[in-house]
Amino acid sequence: MKVLLTGGAGTIGRFLGLRLVREGSEVVSLDTEETAWEGAKVLQADIRESAAVRSAVRGAEAVFHLAAEHRDDVRPERLYDEVNVEGTRNVLQAATEAGVRWFLFTSTVAVYPLDVPCPTEEHPLAPFNAYGRSKAAAEALVRQWAAEDPSRCAVIVRPCVVFGEGNRGNVYNLLRQIHEGRFLMVGSGRNRKSMAYVGNVAAFLHWCLALPPGLHVFNYADKPDLTTAELVALARRWLGRDKGWQARVRLPYALALALGWAADAVAAFTGRSLPVSRIRVRKFCAETTVNTDRLERSGFVRPYSLIEALERTIRHEFGDPTRIADRSNAG
């Protein structure tokens, strides 16, 4: 099967692309960045470039559309719409012209409101930021594409926060701060977080090629959900950072939020992106869980448990967790 993979240079794209190649697919990777894995035909281009997308999708039977602007601090903000909405429109149009039958789209749980515990796929969409709004708009385009031809298979996957080897997102930043002894807990830590291991997400996206025609929407998370305090305690123990004042002190949420507002003002004035922001504080302290009953009923089997995935990630990024903890205890 010939496959177009947009966003092939990203972490999910790398895991998925290597899996597709290993299973015998002919993969075309389209990304603005250089694709740093072997086995694919690489096209370095922007999904906003219609001609490039049409060239990339020619002859493909399936499209995995992962490319997106996804950071919290993208500026100018209109890039969310230009890339995530209009870029998706370009890819869908090219897929239509090429006669593509499978379209698999990675959306986000940011299409749901904050602090709604375990929303199902039928929960009304109420994005809390520009990124989520752009993804919800892109989902509408995918739904329209599926409705135009009943023989098409369209899959919308809404992953929660993704982590894993090579991913430099929020979970990595949390682990790195703990590893370097710079992490300070904000709030009570009782809020629960759904998380998704990149290797499992890639395996699920690949598995979705077996779905029948129609529209399929899935939340994706690797259960069980941990509280922020449980995740931090686990990471501290594995990284040998469960001693010292940082493990005992907590920054009140209200104070952290005020610091986030101040950081946003500084960022707006200087044009520089800062590591602290109001939305990042809100997201860290929010209950961000999703219901995965539909996923559990699908028949998909995750290659790794959540704990195994966290261990693999820590071992890859920081060394063997057991040895780190042993060195800390010995000292």
Keywords, please?
331 residues, alpha/beta, Rossmann fold, 7-stranded parallel beta sheet, 3-stranded mixed beta sheet, 12 helices, 12 strands, disordered C terminus
Overview of this structure, please?
It contains 12 helices and 12 strands. It has helices spanning 11-22, 50-57, 78-98, 130-147, 170-179, 198-207, 228-238, 253-270, 278-285, 293-297, 306-318, 321-330, and strands at residues 2-6, 26-31, 41-44, 62-65, 102-106, 153-159, 161-163, 185-186, 192-197, 214-220, 222-227, 250-251. It has a 7-stranded parallel β-sheet, sandwiched between helices. Helix 1 (11-22) packs across helix 6, helix 3 (78-98) runs parallel beside helix 4 (130-147) and helix 8 packs antiparallel against helix 9 (278-285).
